[in-house]
């Protein structure tokens, strides 16, 4: 049975304007495929409903795929390309080894190729799938301007250098976000995506064992929560075990992530870092009250629109890949 979102949100005029603002130059637009593939969003949504109905835990990974794409070379679907004999691609970079959802993207792209051959880019497919993943996890809907083209270059080295690390502090994360024209508010808002999904032990184990010469565990991590994590993550080398990034709610898009962070129970050092800056701490504590879910949903929509416009290829740039994992 198709998964239905129980959250209905009215899209304010400001959000629609944001989706189209500053995009005249970039040539992205709402309804870009209205004449060439008018059913594009319906096809993506229908297939996504089937995918998430069968595997609800894929909402987080599909959202993460979009994040990891946009932070390297912009939102050009370069994260989807396979490595070749002479090139190690983004998806094989160390920070991307745990990415999932590639086959789901291929599945949606195949449906679109059948309906509208050589028309819809993989970059647009991934952007729409990320939005629909959030909606199907009971999160907000936002309009997606389309017209992205697919990149032809994918570099594991660039991915390792440019992706925000799980151990990042506020100065480092702010610098990385600023390089993508994203600000401090976008940083704290987009961190809320950690309400969905799971993480492998190596991404946070160094907070539990041999943290520093002075502390065996990260002192910014709640000690009870650290003890609980150790029962799941037995060592720094435990690559099999998964932990929920938003315990008890990792398949639902909500604000409980911020309540965990406010209690010093964020899984990553980058989560804990949000409490070290006055601006991000105030936002975390405000959303953690549970009284401003609508504010967070609106903020998240706006920040996702901004991120989805990072470094896009348009017009005659790039190409429209027939298959997302290989250039034409």
TrEMBL record:
Keywords assigned by UniProt? Calcium, Disulfide bond, Glycoprotein, Heme, Hydrogen peroxide, Iron, Metal-binding, Oxidoreductase, Peroxidase, Secreted, Signal
Sites binding Ca(2+) 1 sit at 69, 72, 74, 76, 78, 90
Site, Transition state stabilizer: residue positions? 64
User: Top EC class per UniProt?
Assistant: oxidoreductase
What is the cofactor note? Binds 1 heme b (iron(II)-protoporphyrin IX) group per subunit.
Q: Which residues form the signal peptide?
A: 1-24
* Location(s) in or outside the cell: Secreted
List cofactor names only: heme b; Ca(2+)
What's a GO biological-process term for it? hydrogen peroxide catabolic process
Name which cysteines form disulfide bonds. Answer: 37-116, 70-75, 122-324, 201-233
What EC number is given for this enzyme?
A: 1.11.1.7
Domain called Plant heme peroxidase family profile: residue spans: 27-328
Where substrate binds, per the record, is at 164
Location (main, coarse): secreted
The record's active-site residues are 68
Q: Name one GO molecular function term.
A: metal ion binding
- Residue sites binding Ca(2+) 2 per the record: 195, 246, 254
Q: Where does heme b bind?
A: 194
- Which is one Gene Ontology cellular component term of this protein? extracellular region
Please write the reaction equations for the catalytic activity of this protein: 2 a phenolic donor + H2O2 = 2 a phenolic radical donor + 2 H2O
Q: Does the keyword DNA damage apply?
A: no
The similarity comment for this entry is: Belongs to the peroxidase family. Classical plant (class III) peroxidase subfamily. Belongs to the peroxidase family. Ascorbate peroxidase subfamily.
Q: What does this protein do?
A: Removal of H(2)O(2), oxidation of toxic reductants, biosynthesis and degradation of lignin, suberization, auxin catabolism, response to environmental stresses such as wounding, pathogen attack and oxidative stress. These functions might be dependent on each isozyme/isoform in each plant tissue.
List the protein's name: Peroxidase
């Amino acid at each position: 049975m198709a998964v239905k979102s129980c959250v209905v949100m009215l899209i304010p005029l400001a959000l629609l304007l944001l989706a189209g603002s500053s995009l005249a130059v970039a040539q992205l637009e709402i309804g870009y495929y209205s004449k060439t593939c008018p059913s594009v969003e319906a096809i993506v949504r229908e297939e996504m409903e089937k995918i998430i109905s069968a595997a609800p835990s894929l909402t987080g990974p599909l959202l993460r795929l979009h994040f990891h794409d946009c932070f390297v070379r912009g939102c050009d679907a370069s994260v989807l390309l396979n490595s070749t004999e002479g090139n190690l691609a983004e998806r094989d970079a160390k920070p991307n080894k745990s990415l999932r959802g590639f086959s789901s993207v291929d599945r949606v792209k195949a449906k679109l190729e059948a309906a509208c051959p050589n028309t819809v880019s993989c970059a647009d497919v991934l952007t729409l799938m990320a939005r629909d993943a959030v909606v199907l996890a009971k999160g907000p809907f936002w309009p997606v301007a389309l017209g992205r083209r697919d990149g032809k270059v994918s570099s594991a080295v660039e991915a390792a250098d440019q992706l925000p690390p799980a151990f990042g502090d506020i100065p480092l994360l702010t610098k990385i976000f600023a390089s993508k024209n994203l600000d401090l508010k976008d940083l704290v808002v987009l961190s809320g995506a950690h309400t969905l999904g799971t993480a492998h032990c190596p991404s946070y184990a160094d907070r539990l064992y041999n943290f520093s010469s002075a502390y065996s565990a990260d002192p910014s991590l709640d000690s009870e929560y650290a003890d609980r994590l150790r029962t799941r993550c037995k060592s720094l080398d435990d690559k099999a075990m998964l932990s929920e990034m938003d315990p008890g709610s990792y398949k639902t898009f909500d604000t409980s992530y911020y309540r965990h962070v406010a209690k010093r129970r964020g899984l990553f050092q980058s989560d804990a870092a949000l409490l070290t800056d006055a601006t991000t701490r105030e936002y975390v504590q405000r959303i953690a009250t549970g009284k401003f879910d609508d504010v967070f949903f609106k903020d998240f929509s706006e920040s996702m629109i901004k991120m989805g416009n990072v470094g896009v290829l348009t017009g005659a740039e790039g190409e429209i890949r027939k298959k997302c994992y290989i250039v034409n």
